[in-house]
From TrEMBL:
Residue ranges of domain SnoaL-like in the record: 20-118
Keyword terms, alphabetized: Isomerase
Pfam families tied to this protein: SnoaL_2
Taxonomic classification: Bacteria, Bacillati, Actinomycetota, Thermoleophilia, Solirubrobacterales
The name this protein goes by in its record: 2-(1,2-epoxy-1,2-dihydrophenyl)acetyl-CoA isomerase
InterPro entries referenced in this protein's UniProt entry, alphabetically: NTF2-like_dom_sf, SnoaL-like
EC numbers for this chain: 5.3.3.18
Enzyme class name: isomerase
Gene Ontology MF term list: isomerase activity
Length: 147
């Protein structure tokens, strides 16, 4: 449940960045309570088509956590390492970086670039669109993955 309140002015680029930074930290640590506290109830996440886990559109904060991020976490032990933060003119935030970790079933390494486009509002983070090289994720799950 959403135990910690979070409010953010829709136009505040710095507040959006701080919220996204906290979210990356919470996701990396598997802290579902903090993750949910940062998301607006109507959060919509779009995970890249072709991802071997969690792909598709997830509507609602709990659906995104359960069917998006935690689905990925069941198949992979990875962290998102943000490298560049680009505030967009429309108030959204573009973050680029790399996912680094391993596939749980094969121990094959995952090192895939990402782009995340974040939106926020008064109720917290409201949307994420994710792009990544899904083929690298799939290779890591296969027996022939790069170990």
């Amino acid at each position: 449940m959403r135990s910690q309140g979070f409010a953010m002015p829709a136009s505040s680029a710095e507040a959006l960045r701080r919220a996204v930074e906290r979210l990356y930290e919470a996701l990396g640590g598997g802290d579902g309570e903090v993750v949910l506290s940062l998301l607006a109830p109507e959060f919509e996440g779009r995970i890249a088509a072709g991802m071997p886990a969690g792909a598709g559109v997830h509507r609602g904060a709990e659906a995104m956590v359960r069917d998006g991020w935690w689905s990925i976490g069941r198949a992979f032990k990875v962290v998102a390492e943000p490298q560049e933060w680009v505030p967009c003119a429309d108030g959204r935030l573009l973050v680029t970086g790399a996912y680094r970790g391993v596939a749980r079933g094969t121990s094959a390494r995952v090192d895939a670039r990402f782009a995340h486009l974040w939106s926020g509002g008064a109720g917290g983070l409201t949307a994420l669109e994710q792009w990544t090289d899904t083929a690298l994720w799939r290779v890591a799950l296969s027996e022939g993955g790069d170990r």
